[in-house]
Design goal:
about 25% helix; about 200 residues; alpha+beta; 5-stranded antiparallel beta sheet
Length: about 200
């Protein structure tokens, strides 16, 4: 059987396959929009994770400071401050150790007792024995100023709480509470985790 080649039918339209420029632009715009939305949600979620880590770090380091105070026989303290840099206010904290000449940065455990700061837009409120400190008490002062929260070598500590809030709407993000014996509770939105 011999046969002649069979001709393929040609399409009569202008569209011969593939995508038009308009279709490619629409797809590209959709990809850009989805990517930017994912980026926004990841960045805001990233800040929430960072704040949670820092709040839990305060409580963990405070427990360590109380243990270290009992072990070494030296008092430790937590100094909270409101600072300004480049026109932006932010809150920071530093750990201190009592020495003969006064309060100073701890000589041991420098990684554990490293100074920390919250991102701008997040504020700290300190309560000591149910008396809230005014914001003026957290303002930066001279280097020799003593800490507001003290962890004594006797195993006791200043009773209080720290609230972590958003500046723009005042929303309570975290609350750290502790008693005389240094038992710390980290409460998301100020609610015990058992009740959440």
């Amino acid at each position: 059987m011999t046969g002649a080649p069979i001709p393929y039918p040609r399409s009569s339209g202008l569209h011969t396959g593939g995508f038009s420029l308009v279709e490619l632009l629409v797809v590209l715009i959709i990809i850009v929009l989805v990517t930017s939305m994912v980026g926004l949600s990841v960045s805001s979620g990233g800040q929430d994770i960072q704040i949670e880590s820092q709040v839990r770090g305060i409580a963990d380091t405070a427990s360590y400071a109380l243990d270290e105070a009992q072990f070494t026989g030296r008092d430790y303290g937590l100094l909270l401050e409101r600072r300004e840099e480049g026109g932006q206010l932010y809150y920071a904290w530093a750990w201190r150790e009592r020495a003969l000449e006064g309060w100073r940065p701890p000589e041991s455990g420098k990684d554990v007792f490293a100074d920390q700061r919250l991102p701008p837009g997040i504020e700290l409120e300190l309560e000591i024995e149910n008396s809230p400190f005014s914001e003026v008490s957290l303002e930066s002062a001279e280097e020799s100023r003593g800490p507001q929260v003290v962890f004594y070598a006797s195993g006791e500590t200043t009773v209080g709480a720290i609230d972590v809030r958003r500046v723009d709407d005042g929303e309570l993000l975290w609350r750290i509470e502790w008693d005389l014996l240094g038992r710390f509770d980290v409460l998301p939105r100020g609610i015990p985790e058992d009740d959440a």
